Amino acid sequence: MMWGYGFSWGGMFLMLLGMALWIALLVVLVWALIRWIDRRNTVPSTQQSGISVSGPSAMEILRQRFARGEIDT
Prior knowledge:
The chain is mostly helical. It has three helices and no strands.
C-alpha cells in the first residue's frame, strides 16, 4: 500500500508518454543536425567544376559545329 502517495496506472502512462516524447524530440534533433550538416557541405556542381553557366548550351554548340561542317550525320 502506498497510502495515496504512489503513482497510479494513469501516472505510469503519463511517464511513458513523456519518455516517448523526449525520445522523439531527440530523434528529430539528430535528424535536423544531420540534414543541416549535409546541406552545409553540399556545393552546387557548377561551383565545384568551375564551369560557367553563362556560355552557350551543348545543343547550341552542336548546331554551330554542324552548320560549319565539322560534324557529319
